[in-house]
Design brief:
The protein is of the alpha/beta class. The protein is built from 15 helices and six strands. The protein is 48% helix and 8% strand. Helix 10 packs antiparallel against helix 15 and helix 11 packs parallel to helix 15. The longest helix has 26 residues.
């Protein structure tokens, strides 16, 4: 239904809904998915398969380097109890390190009871050098319970190093052989999904294929949390993240307080400045533009000055408040808001009091594009195109 208010019409057009009430409800649902929906990932497998290393790799941490909050790793079983690890920049995402399933007394049903089976959205079963009966038993029990599960064949970098000294070594054929071997030993499992991954270099091999599969099979309300939290391994991965934030921008603008057409009960992001900064802060961490992510990438690609290539005023402004992360009050009147105001001639400090939907939407798109360009520059310099 058309309205005399151009902002209302703009919201309706962006949402595809017929009334402002429906548009607002849709916007709040999408923003809740972006900021609040929890995701619980269970990581299991036989003792020594590399569960903790995988969890650290997904979280961008390294136990051997002394990173705070990293899961303990080692050549012996280091996980004796169920241990939860919050994502360091996306606190609504939790990875659960489950005890190894190599015990002589292992039974799948008892394992589920002891490891809080109903807690998790899906399972990652880490396979070591060979598939064991316990791996198969666990997968069958997960399948019976109608939970999603995926196999990750770990330590692929070690397999490649062991084979590359041989005459007529062919990397692709070696990887194909490893995959075929896994599939052969998992033939009791209908259509097993197996991914070859090295936790030492998450950008190599089939990590992106794993994420693409998860994106296609997880409920929509869950894949948003997943996509925000996974490390960027290529330009293609960055583009998927950007698309997700682009689709949420209209919702952020709608709920930023710029049009008080209908009340939004329980809305935690109450003013333009807060929602803009919160939105961009999510992008900042999701795109790997924070100091810690840049430092780790610099070390991995051996380019110590990678951070110095970033000239984006928005990235630099976000970095000034990065220690506060998602604490919105810490950003009120900050350099971020000042910079955003400068993008709209004549707006000045009016941003905090409320500006039009169209203007807020414009700011979101401009800021997102600036962050995307900064991330693209980092990937180019790091050689991850």
């Amino acid at each position: 239904m058309a309205s005399a208010d151009p902002d209302v019409n703009a919201v309706l057009q962006a949402s595809g809904e017929s009334t402002i009430k429906k548009a607002t409800q849709k916007a709040q649902t999408q923003i809740d998915q972006l900021f609040n929906i929890s995701l619980h990932i269970a990581v299991t497998g036989v003792t020594g398969s590399g569960k903790s290393s995988f969890i650290n790799a997904v979280r961008g941490l390294n136990y051997d380097n002394g990173d705070k909050g990293a899961a303990k790793t080692g050549v012996i079983e280091t996980t004796m109890n169920v241990t939860s690890y919050k994502h360091p920049t996306m606190p609504n995402v939790t990875l659960w390190d489950l005890p190894g399933i190599g015990s002589p007394n292992f039974t799948a049903k008892k394992y589920f009871k002891d490891t809080q089976f109903s807690t998790y959205d899906f399972y990652i079963i880490i396979l070591s050098k060979r598939v064991t009966e316990n791996d198969i038993m666990l997968a069958k029990e997960i399948k019976r319970s109608k939970k999603l599960f995926y196999f990750v064949r770990s330590k692929i970098d070690e397999d490649i190093r062991a084979e590359e000294t041989k005459r007529n070594f062919n990397k692709e054929e070696t990887l194909s052989q490893i995959k075929r071997n896994c599939m052969e030993h998992l033939k009791e499992i209908e259509n097993p999904k197996v991914f070859l991954i090295s936790s030492k270099d998450i950008t190599a091999f089939e990590f992106e294929e794993l994420i693409d599969t998860l994106m296609s099979e997880l409920p929509e309300r869950k894949w948003s949390a997943l996509m925000q939290s996974v490390p960027i391994t290529s330009v293609a991965m960055l583009k998927k993240k950007v698309k997700m934030f682009e689709e949420a921008a209209w919702a952020a603008a709608s709920l930023s307080g710029v049009i008080a057409v209908v009340p939004v009960p329980g809305l935690s992001l109450g003013c333009d400045a807060s929602i803009l900064v919160s939105f961009f802060t999510r992008c900042y961490y999701s795109f790997g533009l924070d100091d810690k992510s840049l430092k780790k990438l610099s070390e991995r690609v051996n380019k110590p000055q990678l951070k110095d290539f970033i000239k984006s005023p928005l990235v630099l402004a976000l970095a000034m408040g990065s220690n506060a992360r998602l604490s919105l009050s810490a950003f009120a009147g900050s350099a971020v808001v000042e910079y955003l105001c400068s993008l709209v001639p004549g707006v000045g400090s009016a941003l905090a009091a409320g500006i039009s939907f169209a203007c807020t939407f414009h700011l979101l798109k401009c800021g997102l594009k600036e962050l995307e360009d900064a991330a693209l520059m980092v990937l180019e310099e790091a050689g991850l195109q």
